[in-house]
Amino acid sequence: MSAALERLAELLREDDSVIADHLSDPPPDAPLGELVAAGPRAAAEPAEYSLLVEAVREGYLLHYGEPRVVRGADGDLRLLAGDYLYAIGLERLAALGDLEAVRELADLISISAQLHAEERGDGATALWPASAMAVAAGGSESHERAKQELRAGREGAPDAARESARRCAAESGLESALARCAESIESAPLG
Q1: Could you give the CA distance from residue 3 to residue 83 in angstroms, rounded to a whole number?
Q2: Contact, 119 vs 59, CB < 8 A?
Q3: Nearby residues of 170 by Cβ (< 8 Å), 6 or more positions away
Q4: What is d(CA 104, CA 119) in angstroms, rounded to the nearest whole number?
Q5: pTM of the predicted model, to two decimals?
Q6: pLDDT surpassing 90 at residue 186
Q7: Mean pLDDT of the residues in the chain
Q8: What are the CA-CA distances from residue 80 to residues 76, 85, 127, 133, 152 (Å)?
Q9: Does residue 106 carry a pLDDT above 90?
Q10: Roughly how many angstroms between the first and final C-alpha of the chain, as a whole number?
């Protein structure tokens, strides 16, 4: 079972909030967290990076998809829980002092919200692995351009995000981890 998702569920149980009543057993893997934890930027705290990125992903799924840990919550609670999980992830990342990654995940959250509001969820699907690579191994000019293109709604922007992630993974030796992450995100059902 995924240590990151298990830890996230434990953290939410310990919180003793209304979310605790809606926790389920997490799925057996968390390729997004595993990808970030394997990156050179997360080398000092791989388990923490895995947890915090999975918290942000769970927040996103509560807003736009099928969550893995928090289940059975009504629409209002899903939105509040999603925001709470975004905050948990960003707070833990800020505590690590990784302001570059905080900015990256904040961009990911805001761009994803814009893309879903504009019914361009395919762009958000492409952005997640690219942003995970930026947190794991560092950003690049091509990644920043891809985010700008996604914001502007340019044709081919999702492919640009995928390509920036592939280039970063190749440079970092994370190709197989990126492939597992991208496959899990591309195949995950979104609402």
Answers
A1: 22
A2: no
A3: none
A4: 22
A5: 0.95
A6: no
A7: 93
A8: 6, 9, 23, 27, 28
A9: yes
A10: 25
